[in-house]
Each structure stands twice: as C-alpha cells, then as structure tokens.
Amino acid sequence: MPIRILVRYVVLFLAGVIYIGGCSTDVMQSFYRNRLIPDDYRFGDLYRLANLPQFKAEQHPCPPAYPADGPRQPIHLYLIGDSFTEPQRISRQDFPVESLHRTKWDFPRYAQLDTSKTNILIIETVERHFRDHFDRYVGDLHIVEDNNRVEVAAEQPATWRNRMKQLEDQLSSKAVESRLETILFFSDWSLWFKELKARLTQNWFGRVDPKTSVTPDGRHLLYYLDTDTTGKNSSFKPLPDTLLNRYVDSLNRIADRYRGLGFDQVYLSIIPNKTSIVAPDMGPLPYNRLIERIQQSPRLTVPTIDIFSDYKASRIPLYEVSDAHWNCNGRAIWIRRVTEVLNRKGRKEERLTTSR
C-alpha cells in the first residue's frame, strides 16, 4: 500500500476518533481513564478558562483527614452537596463515621436509613449557588422504607424522554465544542500557545477570559459569577431582607421534612465564594453578606456548620491559586467543623445508650 494512502487512512482514523470523542461524554471518559488525553482540570478550573500562566498550579489531592484504623462512631453521614464535596475531595476516610452517602445536587438518589444508627444529613452548597438551591423544592435525596425500592430505583432505566434529553445535551454545539477543545488544545504543548495569547491579551488590552476576573492587585483569579452583579449568583448582588427571609423559611421546611423522614439532625453548611474571602471589596456594590445574614437570622431553625468566621480570620491561603475551590487548608477547616458536630452527636448518643 502506498505511503500516501496509508497516511490518508491514519488521518481519517484519528479524525474519526476525535470526532467521536467530541460527540460522546462516555468516550471522553474512556480517553481520560486510559490517559489518551490529559485531564483538562489538572491545573485548576479557573486556569482552564483563563490560561494565565501566573495562576498555573497543578492540582494535588489532599490526604485523608482521619486515620484508616481510627475508631468509628455508629453514625451514618449523608451529604447533599456540590463540587466541594465530590468524591475526589471528600470521602469517608475524612470522618469518624461508619458510612458516608453523598447526593449531588440535581442528581436525585434513593436511600434507606438504618434506624439503629445515628443518621445525620448535611446540606452543603457553595455561596454562589445558594439562591439557586433554596429558591425551589429540595428533594434530591429520597428516603424509602424498603431497601428493595432503593435497588429498583437504582436499576430502573432512564425514561425515553430523559435519554433523549441526555443525548440532546451531549450533542449540543457548546458541549461538542468544549470536548473537541479538550482533546485538541489541552496538551502541554498547546497550553504554551494559549498562555501566550492570554498573557498578551491581558497586558495589551487589560482583558481576561470573560468567565474569570482578576483582582485589582493582580494576586487572585476569580470566577466571574462571583463578581457579575447582572446575575443572582454574585457576592455583590443585593439581597433584600424579604428575599432572605424567604430562603430561610424554605430551609426550615426542608430540614423539617428530612427530620420527619427519619434523620436525627439536619445541618446547613454554606461554603464561601473565593471572592467573598479574598476580595470582598472588589464589587461595584457592597458585599451582600449572604452567609452571615443567613446563619444569624432569628428565623432560622436549622443548625449551621460555620466556616465563614474561620475563613475570615485566617492568615493563610484557603483557596487554590488556579481554582475556585478550597485548598487543603480550607478543606481541613470544614472537615474539622463537621467532625466537631459528629463528635458532639456521638457523645450524646453514647450517654443516652449508657443511661438506658
């Protein structure tokens, strides 16, 4: 076979593989697992958007916070959470509990509570998405009485409508474009060119990727949702008392419902936006103090796991340089506060058992 024909077939094959990867999330995941393409989040989600070399920092997992052979309390910990508590950041190895069950926002799951254990639910949300989550009915975690119903719900195939919606989302132009960009332009050699372009655009025109913001002193890279007051996610979007009270009432109803379903206690945990800690004066409007006002509201009946106070008092960096998420120091503060709650609950249950 002539070389030029062989080359033609090789090019067609590679083009086909790239195209299939761009059209399918599953294929992309297999590329990641087999290390055919690098992880485009390896230097952080904000760097992935901005490509500014001064904010480039490789991401490393934090070590487990609790000894593997440490004693465990008869507590089953449940989480409804976002990317801050996803498995690569938080696991059972971080807490003195028998089990950890996590439900991702907007991805409902079913569970059966073990009534012989202490069942604790933590509802965790990053500050920027607080309004999105509590301006609606929260039913992401479904509690059932029969374990067979849990298994049936887990095995039940998606409806035709849901499958079509998933296929439509996968084949949307934005999703395909994003996956193709990952395959073609996130290798180390291509990042050099992207960094050069990003640096020149910043130095010559004072602009960065519109999905990011740089603090005036140039020290921090931020997520644009935190600073853009045209949307409701910003740290600087005004939050009138009437709206705040509506969120608090919604929280109270959610906690009451879950306690009624069998949880011994329900806690709220709001993770501060990076902007709220490192640049609270950056916005065109004053910081709305959402976390403080929610946690201090006299209407709130849900106990909170407060890390905002610790974050404000800290003198060490708590967020990744190139990412909107916490670093190992910030993560350790949250785990410590959660563990304090678990230990208090564990000691109380131990006293009740002993007294019987």
Per-chain topology:
Elements: H1 3-23, H2 25-33, H3 45-50, E1 73-81, E2 97-104, E3 109-111, E4 118-126, H4 130-134, E5 141-143, H5 147-155, H6 160-170, H7 173-185, H8 188-205, E6 212-214, E7 221-223, H9 224-227, H10 241-260, E8 265-271, H11 274-278, H12 290-295, H13 308-313, H14 328-355
Parallel strand pairs: 1-2, 1-4, 3-5, 4-8
Antiparallel strand pairs: 6-7
Helix pairs in contact: 1-2, 1-7
Q: Rough shape?
A: globular
Gyration radius, in Å: 23 Å
Q: How many strands in all?
A: 8
CATH class of the largest domain: Alpha Beta
Backbone structural class: alpha/beta
| Beta-strand share of residues | 5-15%
Which stretches are poorly predicted, pLDDT < 50 over at least 5 residues?
154-168, 350-356
Oligomer: single chain
Q: How would you spell out the order of helices and strands? A: HHHEEEEHEHHHHEEHHEHHHH
Number of domains: 2
N-C termini distance: 85 Å
How would you describe this protein?
- The protein is of the alpha/beta class and 356 residues long.
- The protein folds into 2 domains: 3-59 and 164-206, no CATH class; 73-162 and 229-355, Rossmann fold.
- It is 45% helix and 13% strand.
- It has helices spanning 3-23, 25-33, 45-50, 130-134, 147-155, 160-170, 173-185, 188-205, 224-227, 241-260, 274-278, 290-295, 308-313, 328-355, and strands at 73-81, 97-104, 109-111, 118-126, 141-143, 212-214, 221-223, 265-271.
- The strands form 3 sheets. A 4-stranded parallel sheet has the order 2-1-4-8. A two-stranded parallel sheet has the order 3-5. Strands 6-7 form a two-stranded antiparallel sheet.
